[in-house]
Amino acid sequence: MTAPILQIKGVTKRFGGLTANSEISFDVAPREILSVIGPNGAGKSTLFKQIAGFINPTSGEVLFKGSRISGLPPHKVARLGVVRTFQETTIFRSMTVRENVVVAHHLRSKASLLGFFFGSGQARTDEAEFARSADDIIDFLGLQSIRNEMASNLPQGHLRALGMAIGLATHPEVILLDEPFAGMNHDETMRMVALVRRLRDERGLTVLLVEHDMPAVMKISDRIVCINFGEKIAEGTPSEIQANPRVIEAYLGSEDAAIGM
Amino acid sequence: MALRLIGIGAFLLGVFVLVPVFIAVTGRWDFYYTLTSVALLSVGAAGVWLTFYIGRINIGQGAYALVGGYVSAILVMKAGFSFWVTLPLAGVACALISVVIGLPILRLRGVYFAMVTLVLTEVARLTALALPVTNGAKGITSIPLPGELSILGLTIIPDFAGLANPKLAFYLMGAALMALTYLVLWRIVNSRLGHLCRSLQQNEELAASIGVNTAMLRVLAYSISSFFGGIAGAMFVAISQSIYPSSFVVTDSVNFMLYCFLGGLGYVFGPMLGTLLLYFGWDLLSVAKQYQLLIYSGSMIALMLVLPNGLLSLFDKKESRQ
Amino acid sequence: MEQILANGLYLGAQYALIALGLTLIFSLMNVLNFAHGQMYVFGGFVTYTVVAQFGLPFIVGLVASAAVLAVLGGLIEKFLFRPVIRRSKREESTMLLAAGIAFFLDAVILLLFGEKQRGVPKIVNGVFNWDMRIIMPYDRILIGILAITLIVSFILFMQYSRTGRAMRALAQDRMAAQLMGVDVDRYSMIGFALGAMLAGLVGGLLVTITGINLGMGGPTSVKAFLMIMIGGAGVISGAIAGGFILGMMESVGLTLLAAYGDITYLVIFATLMVFLAIRPQGLMGKPWG
């Protein structure tokens, strides 16, 4: 295995007396698609927030390419190349699709804010570059037809794609997807599975996702990490996870009983 | 683009040529004072508007106007500075203070931020009352009119005391300041900085996740806002040649906010229009004597009932609400 | 020391009552009622008119203040806030409306009652003197007790009456309350009327002691904002705590800081800034209101 791009080392998070994550450790290899699964309330979202810098671990650390990113604010984590997408409602509502994607190119700007204010040459180069790259991303995600729609007018499926476009606009190396398949029917899910694969294959991204939809997870993941009650109970390939008695127990003991095959 | 240039040209022509001509013809010299006030108040309102642009309701602009006024008055009276030097210094002082105050309070949102800023105006007034340098309730009076401003011996602005018509001079000065302020504001809004402010207004978490340093951007916007408040205050003091702790009070802060809301928060020129209508309207209503406030507030309420999203929302593009 | 505490309690009871009304309106409708101070002044003038002009007993004046303000509050909610809230895109629009109403009430007060400071004769004479440790006029004690009684009745009302429970449900979660079958419009109106009534009652109580004038509206609103920031906006216990804390701070400050001039409020504001930097939601508020 090549050197991991992301390392989660003994991450623990307590809220008051409640332990949301306990001593979670795993590595993510470059260009890997890794899913974090677990029953509701297992602590998946908390783990995600810690990787993206939205909350700090109580103890333990997160390393990106060997250097520590836990404890940094989200904008610095994003600057280094680790970005998260949110569930669908998190977009800039009063902007068009294209404006959303263009503004999300913030990290790519070389000109200073003052430069943008006075419209310096660099600023104009940047803006042209953002526009080109935004159109590129919009095409990649197949959003051409709604390019100039106001984001607040979009249906759910498009909102999620837009959220992904915003994430891509930062040109990350690692993208964290928060339940990308939630609420989708079979066809939509299959399209999204194909899209996530393309993120890796065509744009060279490492993808980390949190998901409930087991069939999709099994289909898409290189490896899976399973969490229950805040602890990692299993890690392995989809077939290893499906056969793991602790995973089966965790899911049988909860409401979403069946691990779809 | 051509349309925009025509618009700007018409605006400048109206402000700098038509208004003085109109006043000269009608002999309503008192309009100069009113219109100068409108121009300066709209400079302060521009700041409040910018704070709104990052999603914060600012009811504390009166505080910065007061601070700016005092900074200018003290520098002129005690340190013998030229007014023209103190004008930018008043803005800078306000910007610096707002950084210190903004760092903690900009973490607050919604009504909480609004309330704190409202209280800030009262703090400024009490500070002015308590400090020795501001001369307490007696204030600072008999401030000389702005002197000559010259660079390399070339007179750019003549000595106001030697002018035959200082009212016109103040009007032109105020209008120039206003034009400059709105030029700056317009550039901010239409440049990357403005786009980032909008992203902050609409979703702070998402803005952070795409790499925007939200804390820094909030403080930056707030300090620009306070800079505008400071220079507006300093100009006012130069006109009235005096300043007291009660020169800018809570009502003024609330008014600054109202100017923005009335014009419409989605438009750069909203605060200018709002200031003109409210302040000028208030002035014209003085013929109604004791019913002035009643008519004024009554029409404000009526306007809210008809156009709850501001005057300029008449020209709104369709956007579904949810 | 005892004197300071007694003064603080007396002030705090008035303040808490004002803050309760403001916080009730805020929690039900997410409206920051800028006109709260004006409602307080209005209530004071109603009591003044009934007692000093018509020569009726104080208690009649107090009831009149409560009734007039409750009706006024109900009308303001129904005909002004409700339509604007329904149609506006931003919740901030209500601030403009509230400020407009504050100016409007100022205008009405000016026309009806004039600019002069008004007061009513003392309702009880004499001064309570405990060993020179606590000295307090009987009328202040009476007003203090009345205020505390009102606070307790308000809490009991909110806790145990059907209306009170419905309003608490509404404050907690508007949507859920609606689903549970709470008539949102009706209880918003009742809540606003109740909030205005509380402001009017305090005005009526205080007119006997400090008197009332047109200029008291704005500063009263600012103080009320302070209190709910200290306690946490939209929380009943927070409003009461905020009121008593501000009353105490003022009482302590006026005694201890008197030597340094009139800086009590400056110190209170500075403390508040630091406090809010550490705890933005106030003592008992929910984060981000």
From TrEMBL, chain A:
GO-annotated molecular function: ATP binding
Residue intervals of the ABC transporter domain: 6-254
Coiled-coil intervals: none
Gene3D superfamilies noted in UniProt: P-loop containing nucleotide triphosphate hydrolases (3.40.50.300)
Keyword line: ATP-binding, Nucleotide-binding, Transport
UniProt entry tagged with the keyword Transport: yes
Keyword Methyltransferase among UniProt keywords: no
InterPro entries per UniProt: AAA+_ATPase, ABC_AA/LPS_Transport, ABC_transporter-like_ATP-bd, BCA_ABC_TP_C, P-loop_NTPase
Listed PANTHER family: CONSERVED COMPONENT OF ABC TRANSPORTER FOR NATURAL AMINO ACIDS-RELATED
Protein name: ABC transporter ATP-binding protein
TrEMBL record, chain B:
Primary localization class, coarse: membrane
CDD domains: TM_PBP1_LivM_like
Coiled coil residues, start to end: none
Presence of the UniProt keyword Transmembrane in the record: yes
Classification via Pfam families: BPD_transp_2 (PF02653)
This protein's record includes keyword Nucleotidyltransferase: no
Transmembrane segments: 5-25, 31-55, 62-81, 87-106, 111-131, 168-189, 219-244, 256-281, 293-315
Subcellular location: Cell membrane
InterPro entries per the UniProt record, alphabetical: ABC_transp_permease (IPR001851), LivM-like (IPR043428)
Lipid bilayer topology: Multi-pass membrane protein
Keywords: Cell membrane, Membrane, Transmembrane, Transmembrane helix
Protein's name in the database: Branched-chain amino acid ABC transporter permease
Source organism: Albidovulum marisflavi
Automatic annotation (TrEMBL), chain C:
Protein name (Swiss-Prot/TrEMBL): Branched-chain amino acid ABC transporter permease
Family: Belongs to the binding-protein-dependent transport system permease family. LivHM subfamily.
Major localisation: membrane
Alphabetized UniProt keyword annotations: Amino-acid transport, Cell membrane, Membrane, Transmembrane, Transmembrane helix, Transport
Topological category with respect to the lipid bilayer: Multi-pass membrane protein
Lineage per the UniProt record: Bacteria, Pseudomonadati, Pseudomonadota, Alphaproteobacteria, Rhodobacterales
Transmembrane segments: 12-33, 45-75, 95-113, 141-160, 189-212, 224-245, 257-278
Species of origin: Albidovulum marisflavi
Cross-referenced Pfam families: BPD_transp_2 (PF02653)
Keyword Membrane attributed: yes
Superkingdom of source: Bacteria
UniProt subcellular location: Cell membrane
